[in-house]
Specification:
This is DUF620 domain-containing protein. By secondary structure, the chain is α+β, with helices and mostly antiparallel strands. It has 7 helices and 16 strands.
């Protein structure tokens, strides 16, 4: 990952620190020499100017990038992840719930042990990703479009599941999102727009990056069976979002109907090898007089988690692939389905970042 941009005007000048590191291959593709690469990188980072946002071609391009970043780059989950000690009494639990708690304890041991993961007070992650829409279906027809693969980088900061921030930059379009413990927020750079909601964890942390948060999430799950993932026998843990949580996470203009999560834990190593979730959301057609109609969005995501390596005694996944399917239907909406795929790689992980306080996670001011 490239973190610095050389000064093309003066060789003896200090290099510019990039807010979000970008893949080296992306920097090399920006030109045949260092001066051209720096010039194109400056234009790429600056993005489109406001007077061009209304142009149909530019607007369509920006909307596509934001769609990709929202659905696969920075999705949230509605569940509350506890930050206390990872344990629950097995007394009076069902066999399925007791089995799930045992599997989670095996996962804790596989990722470094209770003492090691409990010592994590904060973390920073730098990674790169390739995102692309693989298919588009309109009704019963498959519409062939120009296949593109967007390359970018991201930086993650976290103190606990409700205190985090993410900067994700792809092709000049950046999404800046986070949670300060009281609300979650997301801001796109092109054009600037800020949306807020209840505090929620970032899904990306559950893709092998945050063992403590993952264990605390699945400690309340149930074991529903077994499945072979990448030639490994895995236990399946399932977690349903309660109706009270769904109601609390819903807003005046939309309703979350259901959200279910599944974790596939290796019987051999104890590690999380696959993470899935499925959500249905209804956009209300009439906020003042809700009649149950509207536009429905179904989103299902499947993340294959790979390349576990130890960092300071913690076993962290360093690569993987996420496939997302988005299906829209309902009143005054043409039924359509999008399929998106992201491959990601982690370049750096650091724990217990000195000086990372609550003020760092405050939402930006809406302009």
């Amino acid at each position: 990952m490239r973190k610095l941009c050389p000064n093309a005007d003066r060789e003896d000048a200090l290099e510019t620190i990039l807010e979000v590191p970008i893949p080296e291959e992306l920097f090399n593709s920006l030109g045949t020499n260092i001066n051209l690469r720096c010039e194109n990188l400056h234009a790429w980072m600056k993005g489109q100017t406001s007077d061009k946002w209304s142009a149909p071609v530019v607007l369509g391009r920006i909307n596509e990038l934001r769609f990709l970043l929202y659905h696969v780059g920075s999705p949230l989950i509605p569940l509350q992840v506890h930050i206390d000690k990872i344990s629950r009494p097995v007394k009076d639990s069902t066999i399925q719930a007791s089995t799930a708690k045992y599997i989670v304890q095996q996962y804790i041991a596989a990722t470094g042990g209770q003492q090691a993961i409990s010592s994590i007070q904060s973390m920073c992650v730098i990674g790169e990703a390739k995102i692309g829409a693989t298919a588009f279906h309109l009704g019963d027809q498959t519409v062939k479009g120009k296949a593109t693969e967007e390359v970018g980088g991201f930086v993650l900061w976290q103190k606990n599941p409700d205190l985090w921030c993410l900067e994700f930059l792809v092709s000049g379009c950046k999404v800046f999102s986070g949670s300060n413990g009281q609300l979650s927020w997301r801001q796109a750079s092109n054009p600037p727009s800020l949306t807020t909601g209840p505090p929620r964890p970032l899904r990306r942390f559950l893709q092998g990056l945050d063992p403590k948060g993952t264990a605390n999430l699945f400690i309340d799950a149930v074991c529903i069976g077994e499945k072979v993932i990448n030639n490994e026998d895995c236990f399946i843990l399932k977690l349903e979002t309660s109706q009270a949580t769904l109601d609390a996470q819903s807003g005046p203009k939309y309703e979350i109907i259901h959200h279910t999560l599944w974790g596939y834990f290796s019987q051999r190593s104890g590690l999380l090898l696959q993470f899935e979730d499925s959500r249905m959301l209804r956009m209300k057609s009439n906020v003042d007089n809700d009649d149950g109609d509207g536009v429905f969005w179904e989103t299902s995501a499947e993340s294959v988690i790979q390349d576990y390596r130890y960092v300071d005694g913690i076993n962290i996944a360093h690569s993987g692939k996420t496939s997302v399917r988005v299906f829209r239907y309902g009143e005054q909406s043409a039924n359509h389905q999008r399929e998106i795929e992201e491959t990601w790689k982690i370049d750096e992980v650091g724990f217990n970042i000195w000086g990372l306080d609550q003020n760092y996670f405050m939402p930006p001011k809406d302009k």
